[in-house]
Amino acid sequence: MSNLLLFPIIIPLLFATILMIFPKRLKLQRMIAAIGAGVTLLSALVLLVKVNADGVHAVTLGSWPAPFGISMVSDPLSALLVVTTSLITLFVVFYSFPTIGVKREQSYYYPAVIFLMVGVNGAFTTGDIFNLFVFVEVLLMASYTLIVHGGERPQLRESIKYLLVNIISSALFVAAVAFLYSVTGTLNMADLAVKIPQIEETGILTVIAVMFLVVFGFKAAIFPLYFWLPGSYYAPPIPILALFGALLTKVGVYAIMRTYTLFFTMNIGFTHELLGIVAILTILAGCVGALAYFDVKKIIIYNIIIAVGVILFGVAQLNQPGVEGSIFYLLHDMLIKAALFFLVGIVAVLFGTTDLRKMGGLIKTYPVLGWIYLVTAFGLAGIPPLSGFPGKLLIVQGGFEGPQFWGSIVILATSLIVLLSAVRIFIYAFWGEPVETVPLKKSVFNQMFIPTVILVAITVVFGVGAELFMPFISGAGEVLLNPSIYIDAVLKE
Amino acid sequence: MRTNDVMLQTATKVVTFIILMFAVHIFFAGHYTPGGGFVGGLLTTSAIVLLMLAFDIETVKKILPINYVTMTAVGLLLALATAAASIIFDVPFFTHAYDYFDLPLFGKTSLHSALLFDVGVYLVVVGVTMTIIQTIGEDE
């Protein structure tokens, strides 16, 4: 089955198309969306097992020979990310049933969610830099639909900002791809990895590498290009926010990871040091935001930015612990952000507001919710043995082994700020004088709470059982650190 | 006040068919020469838009009672199914098959599976552009 690695892209595409035909049939919409996400997850798991057993899979579309056709490549990193993406989308679909509202469900909400999964899975799988642009556009189209979906006033205002930023960065993306093509004469990533070391003018390639950093930086929300994120992500309802927060910035992070390990390695002294410095600045900027707001959604949104910085700092070290740490932390962050947004969504529904100062005393009426939230907050900050710890430990170790040891110190120090920002929600919302809550039917609460608990349980297993997952992570790290494995899989068939 | 659009309407009745014929021509030209489903779809849309300008949306809806979103979905399914046939034959995705046939009237003709894919593209392009134009052009 040479096409197996395409299944996590084709299956959701098929289901999203089917969903478009009968937008008004509520039960059928929910059922088919859930089945679609579930089948995609299954195919992704099969793919992960296969890739882990027989090494990197590659297929070049249309039976063209490798550097000329569009190559799709599934190495352990992309397989892991595809599995995580499918898992999160499945949970978001379940969480949407009670929260998103019938009106939205009947106007193409589920097709948009599943199309988003097509784009994200495609971006993680492609082995061609222009095809990466195409899949990024696919996921952006779906995200434009979702961000404006429902047409509330703040959504309309923020969607214009979101559109403008993304159109400008997409235009830059195409320009950067064109520059790269004019210098190297190829767009296949494996072929780029062969050709770039042969080119002697590293100056122009460094410029192109920084251009790509800017392009992907817009998507990943690094300093100082993150300005659009807090406002835009704040506008849509919680399930959409969870989907965006968990998946969209991570595509940018993945793209930086891939390009900066596979082929932009001709001038590490400049590009990777720049990446490291920018990553630390991103963490600091995120910390300021996470402490400054009294709004639960805003606090978690700024934590997305912090995590992006932490992951990219690990990539910038380009050594084994640093890269393995960022892969682990990337997967952890996707899961934990989705879980946190789910929890914050439940809290916001219960109080009817997102303002922390109008909350209090929830621990008396919903004790289980409180403790689950605390576990998740500890996981976010990286308290052992939860899932944030192994990744951060490896990233810090990677930093100490390289020249940017001061960055590791910043990461350690800011972990406390992350903990503080997350625990502040616990203190304000769960402790203190009880505030009157919105009456919520037990069944509706359970419909929101059960997917959340399962997702939190998965993050706990991911942290406590880190030893079980390490073979997958180090397999992914090995391919990133030895581009020849990737190149051989694509070009020598 | 009622505007006099007899000339526009009369011309449209003829021109629409010319545009549609040209769309078909461009559609079939599109394998070895410029053309294909995308351009053909755009031309077809322009013919329908011309009808809308000359008459009105209601009349056009009566002539062409099509749900354009469903049309987009059907087009996507057709394109996906054509490309996915390669999975059954276990060759890389999008691999296309072609052969030469002796057809009556046409003589020796090369038939490509890419044509089916292009029909899908055609349906998607017409469906999407018409949905956009109808959404912008409609009153509440």
Summarize the structure.
The complex is a heterodimer of chains A (493) and B (140). By secondary structure, chain A is mainly alpha-helical. Chain A has 21 helices and 2 strands.
- Summing up helix and strand content along with how strands pair, one would put the structural category of chain A as mainly alpha
What integer value in Å does the Rg of chain A equal? 21 Å
Oligomeric status: heterodimer
SSE pattern of chain B, N- to C-terminal: HHHHEEH
Question: Helix count of chain B?
Answer: 5
Question: Alpha-carbon distance between the termini of chain A?
Answer: 15 Å
Largest sheet of chain B: 2 strands, antiparallel
Q: Helix count of chain A, per DSSP?
A: 21
Percent strand of chain A: under 5%
Q: What ranges of chain B have pLDDT less than 50 throughout 5 or more consecutive residues?
A: none
Dominant shape of chain B = flat
Point out poorly predicted stretches of chain A: none
Mean pLDDT of chain B: 87
* Most strands sheet of chain A: 2 strands, antiparallel
> Per DSSP, what share of the residues of chain B sits in E-state strands of 2 or more residues?
5-15%
Question: Which percent range fits the helix content of chain B?
Answer: 55-70%
Kindly describe this structure:
- The complex is a heterodimer of chains A (493) and B (140).
- Chain A is an all-alpha fold.
- Chain A contains 21 helices and two strands.
- Chain A has a two-stranded antiparallel ribbon with strand order 1-2.
- In chain A, helix 3 packs across helix 20, helix 16 runs parallel beside helix 19 and helix 19 crosses helix 20.
- Chain A is globular.
- The two termini of chain A are 15 Å apart.
- The model of chain A has no long low-confidence stretch (mean pLDDT 92).
- Chain B is mostly helical and 140 residues long.
- Helix content of chain B is 67%, strand content 9%.
- Chain B has a two-stranded antiparallel sheet.
- In chain B, strand 1 and strand 2 form a beta hairpin.
- At the A-B interface, helix 1 of A face helix 4 of B.
